[in-house]
Amino acid sequence: KQWYQRRVRGVCIITVKSYSVFYSMNILLGLVTMAKLAAVCFTLVYRMKSMHAAEDQLEARVANYSTHIQAQWDLDQLQMSDECCGVKSPLDWANATLAKGWTTTDLPDSCCTVVVEGCGKGEPQSGGRD
Known about the structure:
This protein is mainly alpha-helical. It is built from 3 helices and no strands. The chain is rod-shaped, with a radius of gyration of 29 Å. The protein starts with a helix and ends in a 48-residue tail after the last helix.
């Protein structure tokens, strides 16, 4: 073995005064490192899954905007507080279930920069907040 490997191991053994304690500490540190790595992988995988699930739920609420009052209220509150329009863009509203009298160019009033009754009527789909 190289001289520096013996010195490092020697310092560790002198510090803990026993080969068995030294090896036990190394095994424990290895297990802790593997547990941290597993936690990072788990977090990354489930973060992506939860993001996709949330996006799917929001898209379903957009699709049922005019037929479900709770979906309408939820989306209006979210869009006004986050100053956004749609899930990804105002174009999401083109596929929404529209109320009577709505056209594909209309957006909910909560998409307007200044929210007043009827402000989303006739908004082009590229308009509104992003």
